[in-house]
Amino acid sequence: MKITVSVIKADVGGLAGHSRVHPDLKATAGIILDNAKNSGKLIDYHVTAVGDDLNLIMTHKEGENSSYVHGLAWEAFVKATEVAKKYKLYGAGQDLLKDSFSGNLKGMGPGVAEMEIEERKSEPIAVFMMDKTEPGAFNLPIYKMFADPFNTPGLIIDPNMHDGFQFEVWDVIAHKKVFLKTPGEIYDLLALIGSKGRYIVKRVYPSESNKNMPHEPVAVISTDKLHEIAGKYVGKDDPVGIVRGQSGLPAMGEILEAFSYPHLVSGWMRGSHNGPLMPVSVEDAVPSRFDGPPRVIGLGFQLSEGKLIGPADLLGERAFDRTRDLALKITDYMRRNGPFEPHRLPEEEMEYTTLPQVQKKLQQRMVDL
Ligand code: F6R
Ligand code: MG
Ligand code: MG
């Protein structure tokens, strides 16, 4: 049976600044999705939040880019925005950039990750959601899961993984994409995705030469670039991703292992700083210090005829305590650098801040060396 998993997110207002989502916003979105489930259009749904982002996890048979499912998410965000406005929550409706919905969420503000798949005999999936960072924050963990045998010994041990995977990489500046095969093209892949503000892993597929696995996506990441859409900076594009696991794919433990190191991502305070990505429980998905540090949550589900059995809170578990400790040590270290690079982002990434104005103001006073 073909099932589509859609994860759609938006920041439609924060409780006490950009820190978290008010429970009434989740409840309001839940009512919209519940009606759709009762009418049979959605198979199942789960509403959650990371930081100030409201996340809708939905399963259905409408395929990717369905105007019905995108319209439903839009309606849920609009209704949640009404509550946010009534409560005067911070940045109410921030990610709804257009006044009305016209068939697809592309360019409208919300982030979308979705995949249509043939549900396997047993289909474990993990949904990862991040706040105070950007889509490229997924590059390193996705690479580790699907291409690094030091993270995923299954690449060596499991005959169904031994052929490797195919990465679909998007150049979000030039609006192009390229498919790269691992392990053969690992060096080319890393040359690109190390520039995580520009080259983003969009999807991963099993290798085409692998006849034991269907050529379907096994991972997908949202890549919607908020600042390109809006024409001005309105916050980082906090990303979501879906990863399938087990039986010829990375085991759930190999998927989670990729988050055991709090790598540096850009975002954090004012979307202008590098900081560690800290894996947390849903309960702890509430940025605090310096509007961060950037956080990631993971929810595990088993699909059962499209039903979302779960969730399992995957990253709150105590095996990630030391990752969190390290993230907090890195937080102390990075913060001591104040407004200096590489804590503050490089000049090119500061173009939506006051930096260009400062440069312009001082232009007249700049004399030749
Ligand atoms: C980062 C973020 C926050 C805000 C910061 C300033 O993505 O959303 O760090 O940039 O709190 O917010 P404003 O400008 O709304 O006061
Ligand atoms: Mg916000
Ligand atoms: Mg956010």
Helix percent reads: 10-25%
Sum up the overall morphology in one term: globular
Overall number of domains: 2
- The low-confidence runs, each spanning 5 or more residues with pLDDT under 50, are none
**Strand portion, in percent?**
25-35%
Largest sheet: number of strands, sense, barrel closure:
9 strands, mixed
**What is bound: which ligands?**
fructose -6-phosphate, magnesium ion
What is the N-to-C order of secondary-structure elements (H for helix, E for strand)? EHEEHEEHHEEHEEHEHEEEEEHH
Determine the oligomeric state from the structure: single chain
Overall pLDDT level = 95
- The secondary-structure class comes to alpha+beta
Radius of gyration in whole Å, from Cα? 20 Å
Count of distinct strands: 15
Describe it.
The protein is an alpha+beta fold and 369 residues long. It has 2 domains: 1-118, Alpha-Beta Plaits, CATH 3.30.70; 120-369, no CATH class. Helices cover 25% and strands 27% of the residues. It has helices spanning 23-38, 67-86, 139-147, 154-157, 186-193, 226-230, 252-257, 321-335, 355-362, and strands at residues 2-10, 44-50, 53-60, 111-118, 123-131, 165-171, 176-182, 199-206, 219-221, 240-244, 264-267, 273-276, 278-279, 295-304, 307-313. The strands form 3 sheets. Strands 5, 6, 7, 8, 9, 10, 13, 14 and 15 form a 9-stranded mixed beta sheet that branches. A 4-stranded antiparallel beta sheet has the order 2-3-1-4, with helices on one face. A two-stranded antiparallel ribbon has the order 11-12. Strand 14 and strand 15 form a beta hairpin. Helix 1 (23-38) runs antiparallel to helix 2 (67-86). The longest helix has 20 residues, at 67-86. The protein is globular. It starts with a strand and ends in a 7-residue tail after the last helix. The mean pLDDT is 95. The structure holds fructose -6-phosphate and magnesium ion (2 copies). The site of fructose -6-phosphate (F6R) has 10 residues, from loops. One magnesium ion is lined by residues 11, 14, 18, 52, 91, 94, 235.
